Amino acid sequence: MRTLVTGGAGFIGSHLTEHLLRAGDEVVVLDDLSTGSPSNLAAVANHPGLRLVVGSVCDREVVDRCARGADRVFHAAASVGVLKILEKPLHGLRTNVHGTEVVLDAALRHGAPVLITSTSEVYGKNTRTGLREDDDRVLGSPLKSRWSYAEAKAVAESMTRGYVTEHGLAAVIVRLFNTVGPRQTGRYGMVVPRFVGQALTGRPLTVHGDGRQVRCFCHVLDVVPALVALLDDERAHGDVFNLGGTERVSIGELAERVIAATGSTSDVVHLSYEQAYGEGFEDMRRRVPDSSKALARIGFRPRRDLDDVIADVADHWKTRLEVEHA
Ligand code: UDP
Predict the structure, then answer these.
(1) Residue having the nearest C-alpha atom to atom 20 of ligand 1
(2) Per the structure, how many domains does the chain have?
(3) Atom of ligand 1 nearest to the CA of 121
(4) Is residue 256 part of a domain?
(5) CB atoms < 10 A from the CB of 44, how many?
(6) Quick check: is 187 in a domain?
(7) Dihedrals φ, ψ of 5, to 5°?
């Protein structure tokens, strides 16, 4: 099996690439290294089945070359992270809309089934407990740039569905809910690596707002095999699936659990959203998935809980800190 992974040097993409190489695939990784890094692929850097191509998913020629001969494509390249989207909304829109179209087009031309990674962000402020794939999107004003990520990803989804209905492309869409684990960086806003980094270095943990907003975190190692199973199941093609964890936690409680798990002496401080992200920022009070469709289709059932997530992220950053201070 020859597989193309766009964004394969990123957080999720690198775990996926390792998984595919272990399964015996030849893997072409296309990554522009904007937020990804070759260090994410350090464990497989010398693997004979791996080829890393540095380039953009917006570059038709490069994508076409990478897709040539591919049996399947995982499109995991994206501009992600609240801070990144606020800082560079245009880049996010272009990468997430145009880049997806380029990848869909190449997959069609080369006859390769493709998995498109989308996001729970598309549900916006819909706080229903147990969001289902056909639930409404509740978005704030387009003047609030946070929503441009949800908009771009939703357009990418609609475009994917267009390729399915108009061209018969074999494509599956997956909406990821707060996927976390080793290698995710806190630089672009993600809360778990931020809290773990703050706890390990004795800095206060920065809880935004009242800390009562709720999320369900899902370990990347539970997500990765599900991505493969969905793309490899023809019955999933043309459809969209939520993938998320089951354990609900408030961000305030998450901070306490990170402090306890790491034995940290850090305090917790509360920052207003304005302090954290600037004026006019909107957050979701609650984001809880219903992943029963993926359970029914491929038996998706996350095995790792939040304690496993925190422990694995802490182990990863401890090693990094040791290396940096050596
Ligand atoms: N958050 C926080 N402190 C931080 C970073 C994030 O309290 O240092 C909050 C953020 O405002 C949101 C939640 O943690 O309510 C999850 O944020 P993340 O960016 O990880 O994912 P999101 O669910 O917003 O996509």
Answers:
(1) 190
(2) 1
(3) 25
(4) no
(5) 19
(6) no
(7) -120, 110
* 149 in active site: yes
CA atoms within 13 Å, Cβ hemisphere of 252: 9
Range of the domain at 128: 2-180+219-245+287-302
Phi and psi at 60, nearest 5°, equal: -55, -40
- Please identify which of the residues 149, 163, 188, 277 carries the catalytic annotation: 149
C-alpha separations of 47 from 7, 18, 32 in Å:
18, 10, 20
CA–centroid distance, residue 214 to ligand 1 (Å): 10
The CATH number covering residue 162 comes to 3.40.50.720
In a domain, 202, yes or no: no
Q: φ and ψ at 90, to 5 degrees?
A: -65, -45
Neighbours of 242 (CB within 10 A): 23
Residue 135 within any structural domain of the chain = yes
Whole-model pTM over 0.70: yes
pLDDT one-digit tens code per residue, 202-256: 999 999 999 999 999 999 999 999 999 999 999 999 999 999 999 999 999 999 9
Ligand 1 centroid to 302 CA: how many Å?
21
